[in-house]
Design brief:
alpha/beta, Adenylosuccinate Synthetase, subunit A, domain 2, nine-stranded mixed β-sheet, four-stranded mixed β-sheet, 13 helices, 19 strands
Length: about 425
Amino acid sequence: MPGIVIVGAQWGDEGKGKITDLLAERADLVVRYQGGNNAGHTVVVGNESFKFHLLPSGVVQNKEVRIASGVVIDPRVLVQELDTLEKRGITPRLRIDPRAHVILPVHNALDEAREAAAGEGKLGTTGRGIGPCYEDRASRAGIRFEDLVDEARFRRKVIPLLEAKAQLLGKVYQRKGPAQEDIVKEYVDLGRRLAGTLGDVSEEVHSALQTDGRVVLFEGAQGTLLDLAFGTYPYVTSSHPLSGSVFVNVGLPPSPLEVIGVSKAYTTRVGSGPFPTELDGKVADRIREVGKEYGTTTGRPRRCGWLDLVMLKYAHRLNGFSQLALTKLDVLSGFKKLRIATSYRYDGVEIGWPYDIEVLSKVEPVYEELDGFTLGRTDSYEDLPEEAQEYIAFIERTLEVPVTIVSVGPARQQTLFKSKPL
C-alpha cells in the first residue's frame, strides 16, 4: 500500500516524530498535512536531537519532504528551522503547496490578546497564531504561500488585512498591534528567501501515489482528541488531525491508506479540558519526570494519567487504525501495579466515550489492574518481561488492533518491532 498516515491517538505528544522518522527510511516522500508550529516533533539520532515544528520528520533521513495546503506556516519559524539544519549539514529537499496559509505577527498578537481576555476560561493555546490564521482562511481573507512569494501581490493583499487586525486589536482588546511597515518588510524578505520552495504538492503527491513502488508517508500535528470537530471541544486545535483529513488537506481523492496510530503507554495532555484518567501526586510526578513530559513547543509541564482505552477505542473509530505504535513503555518500568481504563461510569451506569464534554468532565474511569514490570536490556520484543508483553496484549485484545512497534526510549535503536509495520 503506497499511502501511510501516522496519527496521534491521544491528545498529541505521543511520539509521532520518532515513528515517522523510523518509517521514513522506507518512504519516498514525507508530507505534513495539517496544523502549524503550535506542536513539535523531536527526533533523536545517535547523540543528536532534532526538534521540528513545521518541517516533516523525514527531513533527517534526507527524504523528499512536502508541506501541504492544510498547514498554516509561520515563515519566521520555517526559516529558522531551515537555517538550523543547514548549520548541521542538512539541506532539506522541501516543497510547499501554494495554497498553504501564512501566519502573520498580528495572528500571534490576536491569539495572546484573546487568551489574556478569557481569564479563567482560557483554552490553553500556545499563542502561535494558529487559530486566527485558520479563521482568516475560512473567511477567505488570508494570505497564502503563493501570495508571500510574489512581492507585488503580497503588498496588495496584506495591507487591508493588517489594517483590519489593527482595528480589532485596538478597539476590542485595547492593544496596539505590530507596526505594519515592519511586518511588510520582514515578510517580503522571507518571501524572497522561500520562493524556491513553491510547488504543487497536491499534484506531486497524487502522481507519487499512482506510481508503483513509491511510498508516501503522511504526518500531522497534535492528536485525535484535539480535532476541531471530534476532539474535546472547545479545548482543541483549529484543524483536523484525523486520518481522513489527509485527502482534503493535501488535495487527494479518497483512497485506501495504511493508518498507524501512535499512543503512549500512558496518557498526557497539555492545556485545559477534561482528562478522565488524570493523576496527581507522586505517581503523576514520577511519570512526568521519567518521561520528560514537557511540551516541545512551550516547555509547559504535561498533565499525566493512566492509559485510557475508552479514548483509544474512540480514536480507532474515527481513524481506522490498521496497527498501533506504542511509545514510552520504559517510563512505566518499576511500577508494581499498573492501571488501564476500560470504560467510564456516569450516574451509576458504565458508558463509553461520550460526545458531550460536560459528561466527559464528570465520568469516573473504570480500571483494570495489571502487574507492573521492570525493563532490563531489550534488544528485541522477546526480551520484554512477560508482564510487559501482557500489558501490550491487553491493549491489543481490547482494541482489536495489533501493536507492531514498541518504543522503549527516544533513540532509533530503542525501538522494538513486534511484527513488520510495513
